[in-house]
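hey so i finaly got around to running the thing on Odorant receptor from Cotesia glomerata. pasting the sequence first so u can double check i didnt mess up the copy paste, my clipboard has been acting weird all day
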Amino acid sequence: MYCNVSSAIEDWFALPLNNNLENRKIMMKHARIGRIVCISLMAPASGGTLSWIIFALPLPMFIPENYTDVFRNYPLQTACTFQSITLTGFYHIVFVVQIYQLITTCLGNCGNDVFFFGLGMHVCGQLEILKNEFRQLKTTNNKREDRKIFQNL
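ok and heres what it spat out for the 3d tokens, dont ask me to read them lol
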């Protein structure tokens, strides 16, 4: 994994040194697709996580009218499991821990998918660049020169 990520970083740092505008367009196209997928996955997931947290907050607008009991909810909807500590000081600790769980789960699941998709898009871009370089390849009658050309790819 480290090898793949460091190779991708090296490719992006080598891009300005390589004055080939076509290669830059290809890499930017694949990076744009990765960015669009990242935003389209992470925004709804983060919004959903935020809504679970907000709806669990003990705000007056979420408490029904004519309700006399103490109304305490949890972000993960585990009121039955933690019913015995709802009225103690541990309620706030459990609430904060569940917020942390929701955020890390959201970032872990969706973030992992987006990360691997981004690496896949980078590899697709590199393969497309390699395909273009093979198309531009011209062979000569000299085998040594051909070998040097292939080594430079």
